[in-house]
Automatic annotation (TrEMBL):
Pfam families in the record: Fer2
One GO MF term attached to the UniProt entry: iron-sulfur cluster binding
Span of the signal peptide: none
InterPro entries the UniProt entry points to: 2Fe-2S_ferredoxin-like_sf, 2Fe-2S_ferredoxin-type, Beta-grasp_dom_sf
Top-level taxonomic group: Bacteria
CDD domains, sorted: fer2
Protein name: 2Fe-2S iron-sulfur cluster binding domain-containing protein
Domain 2Fe-2S ferredoxin-type, first and last residues per copy: 1-97
Residue stretches spanning the membrane: none
Gene3D superfamilies: 3.10.20.30
Amino acid sequence: MMELQGRSIVKEVESVIGASVLELAREHKVDWGFNCTRGTCARCRCHVSEGMEHLTEPAEIELVRLEPEEIEAGFRLSCQAKVQSAGMVKVRHRPYF
Ligand code: FES
């Protein structure tokens, strides 16, 4: 399962192995800003408060785009973070602005 918290909505959805957090948010109509889907704009930045182990390791572009402290604190780019195993994941959309 995945709990997705957008600006005005929280939804619990079935997580799908291989799907990105952004794909799941869009599919389930959670208000989740994004622009490029390539890891460069950071509009899709999110914070993972639970279940990071069920997501893929940060992609190369996330390591470039996000500060090491952000990665350490649980921030990810939702267009890059993909589900890799079953289990509860809690994610909140947290863009810079
Ligand atoms: S949509 Fe641009 S970085 Fe994710």
